[in-house]
Specification:
Number of domains: 1
CATH topology: Metal Binding Protein, Guanine Nucleotide Exchange Factor, Chain A
Largest sheet: 5 strands, antiparallel
Bound molecules: zinc ion
Radius of gyration: 18 Å
Oligomer: single chain
Shape: globular
Amino acid sequence: MVKKFSDQNKVYRKIAYCCLSVTVIEILMEYFGSCLCKGIKFKIVGGFESFYLCHCRYCRKDTGSAHAANLFSTSAKIEWLKSETEIKTYQPPKSSHVKAFCANCGSALPNLQMDNKLLVVPAGCLDTELLKIPDAHIFISNKANWDESLEKVKKFERLP
Ligand SMILES: [Zn+2]
Ligand SMILES: [Zn+2]
């Protein structure tokens, strides 16, 4: 018996194996996200297998920052709730890097790669609080020269 129910932003799938009197509750998280102009809104149901901070030269250009922060899933499903603006994608020649973005505001957006088998989600576009913490920094060999001991840099709650 598979029973689906939900509360707040979690979707649970209750699987009861009657003959074994065992109940397995699989938590399928539900995440909502959007771009800066709110022209694009989406929902993702499922979990992420990995969360990488990528310091490669493509991700640094793509984000304009020290690294990208991308979530990866081969099982989660994405549903576009609002697409008032166009979603564009760009792939630099001879690379496997793909950037999906809102044509109106330029915000990074989720995209499907590897024949739609891999969902890649920029962590920053999620509006739902993400409980998963990054698994690793990758492509450290390409990191910016100023990207060193950043946790030691002075911190301010707001503008200094
Ligand atoms: Zn937008
Ligand atoms: Zn990268």
